[in-house]
Amino acid sequence: MSETDKETMLERDYVAEAAVLIAAGMDRPGFAEALAEYHPFDVSNALITLTGEERRRFFAIIPVETAANLFEHFEQEEAIGCIKEIPTATAVAIIDHMQTDDAVDLLQYLEETESDIDLVNQLSPKKRNELRKYWNYTENEIGSVMSNSFIELGVSMKVTDAMKKVTAIAGDTEYISILYVVDKQKLVGYLLLKQLIIARANQTIGDLMETRVISADPHASKETVAREMLDYGNSSLPIVDEDGRIIGIVTYDDLMDIIDEIKTEDYARFAAVGPEEIRAEEKSVRLSVRSRLPWLMILLGFSMVSSVVLSFFDVALTGSDGVRRLAASLAIYLPLLLDMSGNSGTQSLAVMIRYLTVHDNVLSKEQIRKRLFREIGTGVMEGLGIAAIVFAVALLSDLAVSGWPPEPLTLAMGIVTSAAIAVALTTSTVLGAFIPLLMSWLKKDPAVASGPFITTIADIVTLVIYYSLSLAILLPMYR
Amino acid sequence: MNGDDEIRVPNEVQAAAIVRSDRPLEEKKSLLAEFHDFDLSETLPLLEPAERRKFYALLDGTTLADVFEHLDPAEAVRYIKEVPLAEAATILNGMEGDDLVDLIQAFPTRDERVSHLALLSLDKRNSIRAMIEYDENVVGSIMNDVFLSIPPSFTVKQAIKALVDSAEKTEFINNLYIVENGILIGVLSLKEVISAGSKPDTPIRDLMTVNLVTVHPTTRKEEAVGIMRDYDFMLLPVVDAEGRMLGIISFDDMIEAQASESDEDYAKFAAVADVDVDDDKETVSASFRKRMPWLAVLLVCDVITSSIVAGFEGVIAAIPTIALFMPLVLSMCGNTGTQSLGVIIQLFADNRLETRKEVLTHLFHEALTGLVNGLILGVLVFGLVFGLQLLNGATPAATVPFALVVALAVTLALTVSTVAGAGVPLFCKLLKIDPAVASGPFITTINDILSLLIYFGLTSLMLGSLL
To answer: What is the ipTM of this complex?
Structure first.
């Protein structure tokens, strides 16, 4: 944020204003009107800054619809904290009035204590029914975030009647930009409210509507539906059951939340931490350890593999002093080799994953062939380039220590090391491109599974190449 | 996604078939009108140039403009050149400003840019000129200057009339902006206006919301996304420093901005300058040029690491087995460094490390986290090393001190690397270097050096008798 932006944004602090208004003016006349001027997001943030006593009094006097709306804007923990502060009867009324998807989110995090179960049992039968439907969907399914507050029109309705219906229920409906058209309970089309407004009075909804509806199944993954919505650029997408009935909609604000969730998860994955640590407002050592330790354990398991592979070669490298000297010289370049092949593998992996994402994980044989050939070419060039540099560095550092002419052993060592690096780099570059392809062929998300794999596989391949070459060529010279 | 058919022909293929069919013109028109703009944009590449000309003739100017908005700028340039000039003018003038700017900028030569700019109406040219001046990361570059505005003196009835009159040429009518002398003073949602329809004489001034949430043309897109997400807004008004209403930004542009941000993060972590894969024709040497600079930087770091190992050549020659677990120590420290780097970059992004106290608290937090992780992993490593060495035929008596050294080194090195993973980016920030870009290779190198010193240092200290 630039300085000027900050200043103008700070001209008014709605959260602070709302907090003062609530704390000082709750009992004054005109409070409801004054509060209505503030966006529920600001009011909910203001409430968090107040005392529990103030919150209790606040929820006792405001209309239950307003309270429900505020609860939809709370963070998870805040909502749970508040719902436990207020009397059960009020809490029940508030949850009854909340959007079902938000209510599900809230109830999901309540504990299985008696008072919490009591709360659920006191909800209206209608709400409990709705909630039960949502419980069919897992957190990753689009059904879990759909909303049921939208407007349905009949296909044979006249424009004037439709407009009357919209006018009557718009105030109580969350989303009105797109109206959905049903015929015998089936979703048959949609139209923009804008189109209805400019339509001629004698037309019917059937004349006006668009019939090619892009819809989704409630069990579809959030990510798939988000991608669909991004492509089409509509502000909502209908969710349809097997019988073609519309059972809910997903709107642009859900889409923003889904994208944010995906981004946080992707980010967390790259940083090798749990997404909860990236999201958390307050951090504790326990949370950090819980988020990081599982990853470290997995990665430790992978690292052990390279130690085990190394130990196979180690047997050949103990014994005479000469052999021990070779072992030490090999160890010097070991981190460099491992690191470089890991890096080049990660690069081609990232490029391939992006390529797959752009093409929705579907590639033709021709594309795969071209892609792999290009990675081989790139790997060879990179391998040769890096190998040349490494050889030069090895040679120069030896010359700096022991002067001209270079020892034959040093030369041999340099040649073997750079040859190993050229082969290892090429191999891991190609592997980096190949693994995501394999993952997508196995119908696994290439981005999830590939990261630690590539490093481990590149490590093993590099170790085997480096040590076999060295043992074959250098061991007789050192012995 | 329409569940009915078992095997579903993609929408764009259906549309292409309609274009090619020998149905009467009017029937084709009405069939195509049912398709979404996005599907129609996907149809274009499926058609031959001659078929595309027929396709253009089947759609009206407004629809074509919407179709072109969905195209990739490079594709859009290719197709717009096929269209007769008069029609191209209609399409270009009908496009939204931000997409139009992208299209114009995608023309390869200056001449083509100039000649296509000349097709635009004066209004359109003025409005995109302002957009071109803004950086692509700020909302000014995607601002839309067509919105509904009414004076505060209007009644509900007048507002509804204004709404109906301008609905056709305004893309987003979800909000009415109340503007007095150019200054934005209030906002009213379409829903509120419709619901107030029963009281047509109510003045708008009494209904409108006056606590406005606005952004400036120079506000970063990222920040605007945050505001829209918090408030569940579909539109956000853009005002200048004096509060004059300039335009609106809409959810669709913001969602695109939000989705594309993640690609940049990705490239940074993968150490590729630019993860850009659009072009199937990219050559080997182009990929090489893109990736080699990063590898070269990382190579320099690795040479430093190797020279540290070289310093301990004697230790390794005396106890060659010590080299077995060197990659393990290095990679574990690298991993934990990446973790604390990832966490701190996110904290920077959220502006949550502003005061000295916050910084110190965070470093302390990382130190404790590193210690706990280090202790737990140390115990594990002890067990693994012990087991592996026994399997390799070593005696338990010789293995215990060895496993102890490796385990202790892991604990210590892990703690240090966790702190370094947070400390190095903090230092980068102090030097005003973007911590996300600079820290990766730095942290790896520093962690490598520190962990090697700890590992070999401990070995020489504790296993000195073997040397």
So the answer is: 0.77
